[in-house]
Predict the structure of Lipoprotein NlpI.
Amino acid sequence: MQVRTSSAFIGALLLLGALTGCASQNSVNQLPDNVVLAEPERAEFRYEIELARIAQMLGEDLTQEQRAELYYRRGALYDAVGLRTLARMDFTRALEYNPRLADAYNFLGIQYTQLEEFDYAYEAFDSAIELDPEHRYAYLNRGIAEYYDARTELSQEDLEYHLEKEPEDPYRVIWLFLAEYENDPEQAQISLEENSEKLDKSEWGYQITQLYADKLSKEAFLERMTRNLGDSEKLTERLCEAYFYLGKYMQIKGDQLEAMNYFKLALMTNVYEFVEHRYASVELTRIRHALLNR
């Protein structure tokens, strides 16, 4: 699921059969069975051209608003290719020139969430919502920050509000389920089934909800995850989503080591713009910390 600023990149398919113990004796480093790998995405050439043009334009005589927009655009491009520190610097510069850029605050909130600097994240998301109360993604992103900050009741409120805006979006259903599961696993399953009834069963995201509802086995999910790619959908995007949500599913099932492997697979896609890629690294850090402190 993308925090949309631009299109993602093209990957090439490589199918692998079931892997046995020939990989590594360490189960943390073994790939799960029947995985599908894709060549990691590469930055499009046009991104490099646009970055060069923006750098040139920033040296010209501009209004405050024009300079803010250019810094914001360059920050979004840096973010799209995984240069998060440079992106954060440019979003901050954009707000210095125009402190009313809600999208820049939203991006900063996401990045502070990834750094687990939650106070800064909330400040940024609150600013985005104050400037644009109908912002399409700020409630989702604030809800995710609250989820990772263990403020699950607040997270549930934000994610419920976000789902109300588009009840047919499966990813909104999934994130609400994850927040609800922390508070009441039984009620979360009931809500998941109710919310899933409003979804288009032919959409890819519906398969994820069925996995979480235990109506689809992990093996069947893996087998279906490369089917029926849409005209504008890339394999790497599908795999990034699938492996992240498989990682969360394995956490629910209590298998942290296999969850870790799926989060690594999500990161291998290099789909930097997707929520799933952004938080796979957070999940990995937390699992490693938990394993070291057992």
Q: What stands out?
A: Residues 177 and 184 are 10 Å apart (CA to CA). The chain has a mean pLDDT of 87. The beta strands are 13-15, 36-38. The longest helix spans residues 235-252.
